[in-house]
């Protein structure tokens, strides 16, 4: 079907741009509907002319969603996954029984956020693989609010995480995970926000990344460096043991404490009921 020359029209009682009724029926979409179906998605992709959406490419999200006039090429492999709308900022969502907004102090908010960040970061590393970087969006726009981006060291770990996480729940809600095209967060971040000068506020279309406390950063990323050093020393010890022709049976007793800490952490997460 040749659809060149089709004119878009403005839907009645809406600011949405729509297609003529005959085209909507042909593609299986009712005119004026915002819940566009797969038929229209196929049509949109056919007329976009192969022009990629720069916002989706840089940020992994676009405020237009499926209605964007440009292509959203979802990656088939990536180091980075996106957990969509998973973080709930208590300063934005806390309400009392009578519907009034509850005051949450900055200290309480940071403690809540640090606990969330540590729980997700630890779960990703323990269950799926080494995490190079993790970032959480503090934006308010629907396409970015509460998004968590986890960049793994290996693409295989990211793929495994997406498959498993889409069958899991967090904080009483199903997790929606997908591979993300974002690998360089410097390109995705709002530089004005980092300098405290963003005039668009929470509805900015670039990422406003929420920082964790310095103490937690040292703990999480320092723990990883210690783990690397420990692995390196272990390899050196095994190499020396082989050279000397000795057995390595005496070194296994020191791992019990670490396993016990892991079991305690797992029990704590089960009690929290979020994962």
TrEMBL record:
Q: Region annotation Disordered: residue ranges?
A: 218-275
Q: Which GO terms describe its cellular component?
A: catalytic step 2 spliceosome; nuclear speck; U2AF complex
Q: Where is the composition biased (Basic and acidic residues)?
A: 258-275
Q: Which SUPFAM superfamilies match?
A: RNA-binding domain, RBD (SSF54928)
**Positions with biased composition (Basic residues):** 223-243
TM ranges: none
User: Which GO terms of the molecular function aspect are on file?
Assistant: RNA binding; RS domain binding; zinc ion binding
Database matches in CDD domains? RRM_U2AF35 (cd12538)
Q: What is this protein called?
A: U2 small nuclear RNA auxiliary factor 1
Q: Which domain of life is it from?
A: Eukaryota
Zinc finger extent (C3H1-type): 47-75, 184-211
Q: Which family does the similarity line name? A: Belongs to the splicing factor SR family.
Query: Which UniProt keyword terms apply here?
Result: Metal-binding, mRNA processing, mRNA splicing, Nucleus, Repeat, RNA-binding, Spliceosome, Zinc, Zinc-finger
- Subcellular locations according to the entry: Nucleus speckle
By its UniProt entry, which Pfam families does this protein fall under?
RRM_1, zf-CCCH
Q: What is its main location?
A: nucleus
Q: Name one GO biological process term.
A: mRNA splicing, via spliceosome
Return the InterPro entries for the record: Nucleotide-bd_a/b_plait_sf, RBD_domain_sf, RRM_dom, RRM_euk-type, U2AF_small, Znf_CCCH
Question: Which organism is the protein's source?
Answer: Callithrix jacchus
Q: Is Ion transport found in the keyword set?
A: no
Q: Coiled-coil ranges per the record?
A: none
Domain RRM, by residue range, is 100-182
| Chain intervals with Gly residues compositional bias | 247-257
Q: Which residues form the C3H1-type domain?
A: 47-75, 184-211
């Amino acid at each position: 079907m040749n659809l060149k020359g089709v004119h878009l029209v403005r839907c009645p009682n809406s600011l949405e741009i729509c297609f003529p009724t005959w085209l909507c029926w042909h593609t299986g979409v009712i005119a004026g509907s915002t819940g566009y179906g797969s038929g229209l998605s196929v049509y949109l992709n056919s007329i976009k002319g192969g022009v990629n959406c720069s916002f989706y490419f840089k940020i992994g999200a676009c405020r237009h969603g499926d209605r964007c006039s440009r292509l959203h090429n979802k990656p088939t492999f990536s180091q980075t996954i996106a957990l969509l709308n998973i973080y709930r900022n208590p300063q934005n969502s806390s309400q009392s029984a009578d519907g009034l907004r509850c005051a949450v102090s900055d200290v309480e908010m940071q403690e809540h956020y640090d606990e969330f960040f540590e729980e997700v970061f630890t779960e990703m590393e323990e269950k799926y693989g080494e995490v190079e970087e993790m970032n959480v969006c503090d934006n308010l726009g629907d396409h970015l609010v509460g998004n968590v981006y986890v960049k793994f060291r290996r693409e295989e770990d990211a793929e495994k995480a997406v498959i498993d996480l889409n069958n899991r729940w967090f904080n009483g809600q199903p997790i929606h995970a997908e591979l993300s095209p974002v690998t360089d967060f410097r390109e995705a971040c709002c530089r004005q926000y980092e300098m405290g000068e963003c005039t668009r506020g929470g509805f900015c279309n670039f990422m406003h990344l929420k920082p964790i406390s310095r103490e937690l950063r040292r703990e999480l990323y320092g723990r990883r460096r210690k783990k690397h050093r420990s692995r390196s020393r272990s390899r050196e010890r095994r190499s020396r043991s082989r050279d000397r022709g000795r057995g390595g049976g005496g070194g296994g007793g020191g791992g019990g404490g670490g396993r016990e800490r892991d079991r305690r952490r797992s029990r704590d997460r089960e009690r929290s009921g979020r994962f």
